Amino acid sequence: MLYRVFLLLIPVLVLSGAVVAEDSPSVIVLDENDLPVNVRSVLKMRNLPATSLSLYVENLDTGDVLLSWKEAEPRNPASVMKLVTTLVALDRLGPAYTWKTEIFALGEISGDTLSGDLLIKGYGDPFLVTERVWQMLRNLRLTGLRKITGNLLLDDSHFQVVDHDPAAFDRQPLRAYNVAPNALMTNFKVTRFYFQPDANNDKVVIRMDPQLDNLDIENHLTTRDGSCRGYQRGIAIIPNESYDRFTFSGRFPRGCEIYAMDRTAMSHNEFTYGLFKSIWRELGGEIEGGWKNVSEPTADEPLLIYESMPLADVISKVNKHSNNVMARQLLYTIAAETYGAPATEDNGRRAVIEWFAEQGLDYANLSLDNGAGLSRTSRMSARQMAELLKFAYRQPYMPEYLSSMSLTGLDGTMSRRFREDSLTGRAHIKTGSLDDVNAIAGYLQASSGARYAIVAMQNHREIHRGPGEEVQEALLRWLYEH
Predict the structure, then answer these.
(1) In terms of domains, do 140 and 56 share one?
(2) Calpha distance 53→70 (Å, rounded)
(3) In this predicted model, what pLDDT tens digit does every residue of 9-62 receive, in sequence order?
(4) Cα 179 from Cα 45, distance rounded (Å)
(5) 443/295 same-domain check
(6) Is the peptide bond before 342 cis (omega within 30 degrees of 0)?
(7) Which residue among 293, 309, 325 closes a domain?
């Protein structure tokens, strides 16, 4: 047999890079030639060193370690790191935890008019998107308020976020994945731009959603013959220093009936003011003033308290769609609930490490960084991730955690992998990918009905360009048929 099964006879066995913990009843000890044949085939075909790969597979019912290879090697897990942050949030806060956003009237309300300022205080709601802001402001209109004579005051002091450079990670400051956390984050600070060629002349119509009056657009786009292809369809975007004016230039293909592009704009507070003003006007409201950032507590009772969706729903959006800024919001929330406000990223990391220690889980060489995996310095081992998966599987909130991951062939980041396949819907997987990083972790039900925790992490040059997914596919098929 390729796979040699040894009963555990001694506390710790080290052989050819595989480590057997003393609580493992059995294990397949590997050297490179004992890796599953289809995994070895991909490694050989793509000229990938086996040492670039870490694997760990354990039967969740029996505790048998089915496969282990370089499982103690710290590697960059990319977005698989979100499984750490979401698990700690579930355990610390509970699946029914909600965030609140408070609205205060600072002045006298007479009839439908507030003679004064309106204050909105955020507590870190990770999913206060346009539709939910509309619902919140509709609830505000139902109080009878219509006109605000003063300013919109915005309090985001619950989080203390410093020195964030949106271009630092990959020089793409307009990309949604580079948005900084904020205690009053609305719609991820993202605007969707729609581009449509004007059939009557050599121009392109640009529309935005949400419509932001305080975001200026300079449109220098022209059209050209051609199909709807090419990077950004030939569109170049140049923002000004404050990101409140975008200049669009380039030649847009007439073959595009309509093209959409999501980009971030302005500061958090500027964006929230623009979004508020746009929706408030749609709801028949008026506001005469501008906006100001404040961080002063108020003794007044809120005019409205708007609650977020529960944490169980939030982590589903984090893990299925690998939302970076939502994961970072969770880390700050963990910090706030553990040590109080204002929450900091350092305190978030500290709280997570303390949680590992409390649960008796190994955190040696764990580097959480921002908790989202959008990092060059994040590190953890495949064995550490597997221990987390096993821990979560024994908890009462296991169904919420498991269902937060993408189903193979059906949704999230796994929706296009294993479609109409024997593996469709058989695994809940969190994916991770950065330049030179590819990883998966989650749960799989084999054809036999047995359930496994599975982790694969690979760090190697160009591994993110396809070879990493080929290795993962070979591993998942081997395990399913095992």
Answers:
(1) no
(2) 7
(3) 333 333 334 443 344 444 465 688 889 999 999 999 999 999 999 999 999 999
(4) 38
(5) no
(6) yes
(7) 309
Query: pLDDT tens for residues 446-473?
Result: 999 999 999 999 999 999 999 999 999 9
CA–CA distance, 92 with 107 (Å, rounded to integer): 38
Residue pair 7/63 in contact by the 8 Å Cβ criterion? no
Q: What is the CATH number of the domain that holds 142?
A: 3.50.80.20
- C-alpha dihedral sign at 285, 290, 295, 300: negative
Number of domains, the chain: 2
What token pair was written down for 99?
């965030």
- Residues 263 and 367 both lie in one domain: no
**Is there a single domain that holds both residue 137 and residue 280?**
yes
Domain at 433, CATH number: 3.40.710.10
Residue 163's pLDDT band, with cuts at 50, 70 and 90, is confident
For 335, the domain range is 5-95+312-481
Taking the model in full, what pTM does it have? 0.92
- Asked if residue 82 lies in contact with residue 95, where contact means CB atoms within 8 angstroms, the answer is no
- For position 33, what pLDDT does the model report? 85
- Find the Cα–Cα–Cα–Cα dihedral 463, 35, 408, 369, rounded to 10°: -50
State how far the Cα of 194 lies from the Cα of 431, in Å rounded to an integer: 29
State pLDDT tens for residues 247-271. Answer: 999 999 999 999 999 999 999 999 9
Q: Which of 275, 290, 309 is the last residue of a domain?
A: 309
